[in-house]
Write a structure and sequence with these properties.
Strand order of the largest sheet: 3-4-2-1-12-11
Distance between the termini: 29 Å
Number of strands: 12
CATH topology: Deoxyribonuclease I, Chain A
InterPro entries: AP_endonuc_1, AP_endonuclease_F1_BS, AP_endonuclease_F1_CS, Endo/exonu/phosph_ase_sf, Endo/exonuclease/phosphatase, ExoIII-like
Structural class: alpha+beta
Order of helices and strands: EHEHEEEEEHEHEHHEHEEH
Radius of gyration: 18 Å
Shape: globular
Helix content: 10-25%
Family: Belongs to the DNA repair enzymes AP/ExoA family.
Keywords: Hydrolase, Magnesium, Manganese, Metal-binding
CATH class: Alpha Beta
Pfam family, one: Exo_endo_phos
GO biological process, one term: DNA repair
């Protein structure tokens, strides 16, 4: 099963790019961010034509998140993080799909720093950390996926010295990210590509994509119950080079149906480099026992 996250930077304006990528990659579940569309303007018909169902949390001109599935019903469990009833930003949506609980998120940018936007980012992050802990406590397979607007380390940014004053690279923000990981979450892309320069975002300015002058800010975090099923994690970097595309590239993980069996080192080495096979998925989701956290 392939699960992806993609900040589309305007779901209607970039719809041809989104549909082209869905047709090419054929992910089973997709989390989208920055829809930049009110609830009634989500392009459900075009997405259904490709075999996907969807739930979404829209907002006019800004924000907006969605979950798409072609492997069974989407059982929505939450929209909006708990902890602030006055928060009107459409930044979080959560659902059980095919036996996995998925939290799709678009963490605030936080610039300029310091200021109220940065304060909001930190407070939103604290709410995410608290909610994430409650998800882990269930013991179920859970994934947090989306645009975190966090550059975790120097390895995750081209010329880190240029980002020292940016909210994406602020010490408080990076510390919050690692407090989240310390709960037990696994950074899937880093698990597969330790020590490798790999980016998910390239600015529209200064020819950033062609120069590979990017950032890694789109993350897929797996709970321990899900991390044992991790087969692969990649960035569809070439999509960033398409015409009228988002400034983000899609990121995806491939998961086995069951936890991977432990193999002898020599057996693992023999199989290294073998082509990825997509696991079969059931036609209907198994959500028995998954938590419901509407609020």
């Amino acid at each position: 099963m392939i699960i992806a996250t993609y900040n589309v930077n305007g779901v209607n304006g970039r719809l041809p790019v989104l549909l082209r990528w869905l047709t090419e990659r054929q992910p089973d579940i997709v989390v989208l961010q920055e829809l930049k569309a009110p609830q009634e303007k989500f392009p459900l018909s075009a997405i259904r034509d490709l075999g996907y169902d969807a739930i979404w949390h829209g907002q006019k001109s800004w924000n907006g998140v969605a979950i798409l599935s072609r492997v069974g019903e989407i059982h929505e469990t939450r929209r909006g993080l708990p902890g602030d009833p006055d928060d009107t930003h459409s930044r979080y949506i959560e659902a059980a799909v095919n036996g996995i609980l998925i939290g799709g998120l678009y963490l605030p940018n936080g610039n300029p720093r310091p200021g109220p936007k940065f304060d909001y980012k930190l407070s939103w992050f604290e709410r995410l950390i608290e909610h994430a802990a409650s998800l882990l406590e269930t013991g179920f397979p859970v994934m947090l996926a989306g645009d975190f607007n966090v550059i975790p380390t120097d390895l995750d940014v081209y010329k880190p010295e240029r980002w020292l004053d940016d909210a994406l690279f602020a010490p408080e923000v990076r510390a919050a990210y690692f407090r989240l990981l310390d709960q037990g979450w696994i950074d899937a892309l880093r698990m597969i590509h330790p020590g490798q320069v790999i980016y998910t975002f390239f600015d529209y300015f200064r020819n950033a994509y062609a120069r590979n002058a990017g950032l890694r800010i789109d993350h897929l975090l797996l709970s321990p119950a899900l991390a044992d099923r991790l087969v692969d994690a990649q960035v569809d970097r070439h999509v960033r080079g398409w015409e009228k595309t988002s400034d983000h590239a899609p990121v995806w993980v491939a998961l086995a149906d069951k936890p991977k069996r432990r193999r002898r080192p020599e057996a693992a080495a023999t199989e290294a480099g073998a082509p990825l096979r997509r696991s079969r998925v059931s036609s209907s989701p198994s959500t028995t026992g998954l938590p419901t956290t509407r609020g």
